[in-house]
Write the structure tokens for this entry.
Amino acid sequence: MPQMCQQFWPCSAVPQEWLWLMPIVMPLLAIVLLGVPVASILHRAGRSRWWTVIAFIPLLNLIGLWVFAFSRWPVVDR
């Protein structure tokens, strides 16, 4: 661990006892910072917020983006 701590700044910014939290906190932070805006955009476009789950699955997110971009938008059809 000391060699890795010389390369990355979080080791010096966070006490050693808290380093086990990084693998838990970082994915949750990514879900909040990316998932909430994506869900809001999808809801405004008239889509289900469950499409947000697809945003976190590699390659499936690209397919979902193409489907989302070229399908009919329910809000426009009203």
User: Anything to note?
Assistant: The CA atoms of residues 24 and 30 lie 11 Å apart. The chain has a mean pLDDT of 80. The radius of gyration is 19 Å. The chain has five helices and no strands.
